[in-house]
């Protein structure tokens, strides 16, 4: 038990060495809003939404980067704190295309937005993550819009060239979570910050599209993006958060057992994300786990066993017939040539339990050690 305490909103709370004010607040269910903070990555303190008032400090401090120090007296919701957060949110809303909060801004009315969105000119005005945007959530929570500041247009065009991810620089708030997800979480080192000032942008080496870069399309950056700057191509304008249900499952691709959320809408999977609080992947997924769910709906899927006839043609069979045939063939081979004439290769897509049963079948029932596991996925 720690003997060091800080006070947050009048509550005396213990902390451990190395914890930030945000860590202590979260551990004690005291809400502090964040935008750039990414769990398990080095805090950058770039957005300033998480500022708090610390007695004796000359200015407000970012709670995500400020270490807890014995005797600190912190206020997370003072008038000064609220005003600072509002200003940060207003500035972010005034830079780029955040049209969910356009009402009351200098840029135009909802009516104009709808007209532009319906123009069919490919301008894609409506935000694809409406209802699942951290900035939108904060704008509503703190009741701010982009009205006070001059609007800044982002000059970079939409990047639609990539097979799985759409990059919309006009919605990017340069929080850097995608950079950390790529470099610190997945350690792919494919993206970073580029240019300076108003021209600042998240770039790949040589500022090329993702498809021409070192990107492996794990989609960790998409999951980390708190706004609509990075979205799954397949889910864009299809997935609507308030219409979908989340179903937890285990990834079917390899034996690691990564935990996934299937986002199911009208009975179909429309996107997949990692379960942040779940071992072993802690929210991370690979390209197959995140994007490879189309096979479920493929017309080419085998739905019944097929038995090859003597003439080489396949015919449909029942499971009983197919399994009886396989069992008879196994028996025949063992009777004629002994158990070591058999060998089994367990599928890498199987769960550990299935692979365990497969080796039991070969070792305990067939009496051979000719059993292996396919390493390729
Ligand atoms: Fe702390 Fe962004 S969350 S500065």
UniProtKB/TrEMBL annotation:
Molecular functions (GO terms): 4 iron, 4 sulfur cluster binding; metal ion binding; NADH dehydrogenase activity
The 2Fe-2S ferredoxin-type domain, residue ranges: 1-80
Coiled coil: none
Keywords: 4Fe-4S, Iron, Iron-sulfur, Metal-binding, Oxidoreductase, Repeat
Classification via Pfam families: Fer2_4, Fer4_7, Molybdop_Fe4S4, Molybdopterin
Record carries keyword Transmembrane: no
CC terms in the record's Gene Ontology section: membrane
Domain 4Fe-4S Mo/W bis-MGD-type: 244-300
Domain 4Fe-4S ferredoxin-type: 163-193, 207-235
PROSITE patterns linked: 2FE2S_FER_2, 4FE4S_FER_1, 4FE4S_FER_2, 4FE4S_MOW_BIS_MGD
Record GO biological process: respiratory electron transport chain
Keyword Ion transport attached: no
SUPFAM superfamilies linked to this entry: 2Fe-2S ferredoxin-like, 4Fe-4S ferredoxins, Formate dehydrogenase/DMSO reductase, domains 1-3
PANTHER family linked: FORMATE DEHYDROGENASE H, RESPIRATORY NITRATE REDUCTASE
Protein name, as recorded: NADH-quinone oxidoreductase
Organism: Desulfonema limicola
Lineage start: Bacteria, Pseudomonadati, Thermodesulfobacteriota, Desulfobacteria, Desulfobacterales
């Amino acid at each position: 038990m720690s003997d060091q305490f800080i006070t947050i909103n009048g509550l005396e709370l213990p902390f451990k060495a190395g914890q930030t004010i945000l860590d202590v607040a979260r551990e004690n269910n005291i809400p502090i809003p964040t935008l750039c903070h990414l769990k398990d990555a080095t805090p950058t303190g770039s957005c300033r939404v998480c500022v708090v008032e610390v007695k004796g400090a000359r200015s407000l401090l970012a709670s995500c980067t400020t270490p807890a120090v014995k005797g600190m007296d912190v206020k997370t919701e003072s008038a000064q704190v609220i005003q600072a957060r509002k200003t940060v949110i207003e500035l972010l809303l005034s830079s780029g295309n955040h049209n969910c909060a356009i009402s009351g801004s200098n840029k135009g009315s909802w009516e104009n937005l709808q007209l532009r969105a319906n123009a069919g000119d490919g301008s894609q005005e409506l935000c694809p993550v409406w209802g699942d945007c951290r900035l939108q959530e904060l704008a509503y929570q703190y009741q701010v819009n982009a009205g006070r500041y001059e609007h800044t247009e982002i000059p970079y065009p939409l990047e639609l060239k990539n097979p799985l991810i759409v990059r919309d620089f006009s919605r990017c708030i340069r929080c850097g979570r995608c950079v950390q997800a790529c470099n610190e979480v997945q350690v792919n080192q494919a993206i970073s910050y580029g240019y300076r000032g108003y021209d600042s942008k998240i770039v790949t080496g040589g500022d090329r599209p993702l498809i021409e870069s070192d990107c492996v399309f794990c989609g960790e950056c998409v999951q980390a993006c708190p706004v609509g700057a990075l979205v799954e191509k397949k889910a864009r304008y299809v997935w609507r958060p308030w219409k979908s249900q989340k179903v937890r499952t285990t990834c079917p691709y390899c034996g690691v057992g990564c935990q996934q959320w299937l986002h199911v809408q009208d009975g179909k999977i429309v996107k997949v994300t990692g379960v942040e609080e779940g071992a072993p992947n802690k929210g991370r997924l690979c390209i197959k786990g995140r994007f490879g769910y189309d096979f479920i709906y493929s017309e080419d899927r085998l739905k019944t066993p097929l038995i090859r006839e003597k003439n080489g043609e396949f015919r449909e069979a029942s499971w009983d017939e197919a399994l009886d045939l396989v069992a008879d063939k196994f028996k025949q081979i063992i009777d004629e040539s002994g158990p070591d004439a058999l060998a089994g290769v367990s599928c890498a897509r199987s769960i550990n339990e299935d692979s365990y049963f497969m080796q039991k079948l070969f070792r305990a029932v067939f009496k051979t050690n000719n059993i292996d596991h396919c390493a390729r996925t």
